[in-house]
Specification:
Blueprint lengths: L7 E4 L5 H12 L3 E5 L13 H12 L3 E5 L6 H15 L4 E4 L14 H28 L3 E6 L2 H4 L6 H21 L4 E9 L26 H8 L10 E5 L2 E5 L15 H6 L1 H4 L7 H8 L1
Parallel strand pairs: 1-2, 1-4, 2-3, 4-5, 5-6, 6-7
Antiparallel strand pairs: 7-8
GO molecular function: oxidoreductase activity
Family: Belongs to the short-chain dehydrogenases/reductases (SDR) family.
Protein name: Short-chain dehydrogenase
Length: 293
Amino acid sequence: MGLLDGKVAIITGAGNGLGEAYAKLFAREGAAVVVNDLGGARDGSGADRSAAQKVVDAIVAEGGRAVANGDDVSTVAGGENILKTALDAFGRVDILVCNAGILRDRSFANTSEEDWDAVIKVHLKGTYCCALPVWKWMKENGGGSMVLTSSTSGLYGNFGQTNYGAAKAGIYGMVRVMAIEGRKYNIRVMGLAPGAYTRMTSDLPGRQGREPDPLSLPENVAPGVLFMVSDLAAEHSGKILGVSARGVREIKMVETEGFAPGRPYTAQEVAENAAKVFFDVPENVHRLGAAAR
C-alpha cells in the first residue's frame, strides 16, 4: 500500500529535475499523476512538449498511471487546462505541487524589465494561475493538499536573484494566507524551499565543471515532498519546509523582543534599544550612536 493510493496529483514543471522526481515517486506511491511541462529552456524560452511525455512514458512503463500536459502555467487558460487534464483523465485532483520555474539571474542594476516580468510571471503569477482553479475545485469537493515552491533566495536572499527572490518571497506570502483561508475547506497548503542539483542550480558558484554529489540529486529530495503532500503532514498547513538531501527543516519568520515603550518614542530611543529590536547587534552600536550625535 502506497502513501498516495487512490489520489490524483498535478505537478507543474515535471518534465525534468525535481518535478520529474516528484512525479515518479508519487506514482510509485499509488497516485495518478498529471505531468505538466512546457518544455522550455532554463530562461523560459522555447517549448518542447515531449519533455512531459517522456516522464509519463517512464511512469507507465513501471506500471503507474500518468498523463502529460504541455500548457503554460503563467496563463489563466493554462492553469484551467491543467486542471481539466486531471479531471478528464482521472476525475478528480487531490494534490497540487507548483514547481515550474525559470531563471534570469542578473545583479539588480543589470536586471531588465523583460527579465523581471518573465520571472515574476512564471513563478508568482504561474503559482496563482495553477492554484486558483484547483483551489476552487477542492473547495467544492472535500479539500486536498497543495505545495507551493518558494526558495531560500526569497526567504534569505541571494546575490543576483532580485527577480527570482521577489517572486519566491511572494509565494511565501501566498502560502501563509491560503493556509488560513483553506482551513474551513480542508485545503492544506505548505511551502517548499528545495535544495538539489538540477539544471537550475548546476552553474552556481562552486558547482561549475564538477560532478554532482549523488546525495544532491532530485530523487533524494523527493521523499520530503512526498511527506508534505501525504496525510502524514495533515497537521502542518501553513508551514515552510526546507527540503534537501541533508534532511528537512522548518523555516519560519520570528520576531525579537522588540522595543515597545507604550508611548510615543523617538528615533534616537529606537537606536538606544537596538539590542531589543535586532537579533544580532554589534557590541559597539550604542557607542557608534553616541558618536553620531
